Amino acid sequence: MNICCIGAGYVGGPTMAMIAHKCPQIKVTVVDVDARRIAAWNDGPLPVFEPGLDDIVRQARGRNLFFSTDIDTAIREAQMIFISVNTPTKMYGVGAGKASDLQYVEACARRIAAVARDDKIVVEKSTLPVRTAESVRAILSAQHEGPRFQVLSNPEFLAEGTAMRDLENPDRVLIGGDPSAAGQAAVAALVEIYAKWVPRAKILTSNLWSSELSKLTANAFLAQRISSINAISALCEATGADVDEVAHAIGTDSRIGPKFLKASVGFGGSCFQKDILNLVYLCEHYGLDEVASYWEQVVKMNDYQKRRFTQRIVRGLYNTVANKRLAVLGFAFKKDTNDTRESPAIYVCQDLLAERAKVAIYDPQVTAEKVSADLGVKDLAAAGVEVCADAYAAAKGAHALIICTEWDEFKTLDFARIYQEMHRPAFVFDGRNILDLAALHKLGFTTSGIGKSNGE
Ligand code: UDX
Ligand code: UDX
């Protein structure tokens, strides 16, 4: 069997690597319009940093896993085609700022329709608005004579940083298909692939629309938990309660559960905001205004949390950060990834730069090139930004340490050394609640965490 995946990104690359790893009898070809990305998948360093990914790609590449820019050949040779291109928030026209931009998905469907010579199963891997499969199917079937297509929805629930673990041992795999016999045969073909390593009981099947909507709903629920605990963190700061203690206390209730209750500077990543806004847009489209504004509040709370964190920094530093060197530790949207999409660090840095601070950034995986693109500044030095080689270099001569990403290495820094090299009073603003603030306080730092009262 031949599989092709269009889109060699954070989702397409790791997912196909896992299928190739688990199913040596299937030939998997990942294609992309971006030749540089494909070259990196072939020669490294891989364009996506995920623990464990390197090994799997090295074993399978050239055996049954291939990366190519020859999209047409890969489509033609495949019996099953995954669409895994990006679906960013649309920034123009109708639905600007909320709806998903489906131009790349549509382009894929048109390409498949144009070059396919035999029947194919087309699998939506990208996260899509409900009923997108209808449009994909309409485009594919526009030629009356010609191959027949089945469209499946198979949303990806992997989280970045743990992608390989999530792919190897998923909570569930969801496959949506048409109720017709041909639709169910296509579902069965995809079930067969996952069943090579995922227990059957964890492979759920549903109709197309349920599958598409489940992905948006899962992300909305996860993001809602973070916004909920972050909302409580503001109340903790005002009252002297400690948000980690509150999260622990409520998380032991088995109905609530302990996961996704970590208060933070705000959630980031390519999915949560985009998918909720998309959900909001869909609700508005169907005239469900109350439902739309209910979910929109999750994003508003997240914006508030990011802004609140910066305001706390400025207030803590005697209401002015102009010309003060501030060490920002972490720029990725979470640990163990080089992905910075919608990273709260971007907003924090931009707000601090607007206050005329000098920002010294260190992240173990994010390059200066990416920082400059994300902050929208060509000349980093002129904008007051320095990208440093390690945390110590960033902290040297700084007034404050600002933790934006929860990288493990930040927990074990030599804070006594850092304290010696900082201005006094030396501040720590822990936007991830990963540091032992009491121990830092003993060293002399003035400390501040999310959902904790100041100056512990
Ligand atoms: C995925 C999903 O597709 C998205 O819907 C989901 O919400 C998040 O995960 P991701 O893999 O993170 O997106 O996106 P990205 O890393 O940007 O990769 C997409 C790739 O598709 C890029 O390499 C891009 O070059 C490629 N692409 C895009 C094509 O090959 N053809 C196109 O027409 C458009
Ligand atoms: C998310 C979903 O988890 C995944 O199922 C979906 O396929 C894609 O979107 P991802 O964005 O990779 O995955 O990361 P996730 O671990 O969900 O974290 C998202 C953001 O929330 C990060 O910025 C993270 O730091 C933040 N977060 C997460 C918190 O602030 N607190 C938490 O308790 C958990």
Molecular structure report:
- The protein has 456 residues and is of the alpha/beta class.
- Helix 13 links the parallel strand 9 (325-329) and strand 10 (358-362).
- It starts with a strand and ends in a 7-residue tail after the last strand.
- Helix 9 (208-239) packs across helix 11 (272-285), helix 9 packs parallel to helix 12 and helix 11 (272-285) runs antiparallel to helix 12.
- It has a six-stranded parallel sheet, sandwiched between helices. The protein has a six-stranded parallel sheet with strand order 11-10-9-12-13-14, with helices on both faces.
- The protein contains 18 helices and 14 strands.
- The model has no long low-confidence stretch (mean pLDDT 96).
- It has helices at 12-22, 35-43, 53-60, 71-77, 103-115, 132-140, 163-168, 181-194, 208-239, 243-251, 272-285, 289-316, 344-354, 368-375, 380-383, 391-395, 415-420, 437-443; strands spanning 2-6, 27-31, 65-68, 80-83, 120-124, 149-153, 173-177, 203-207, 325-329, 358-362, 385-387, 400-403, 427-430, 446-449.
- The chain is 44% helix and 14% strand.
- The protein binds uridine-5'-diphosphate-xylopyranose (2 copies).
- The site of one uridine-5'-diphosphate-xylopyranose has 19 residues, from helix 9.
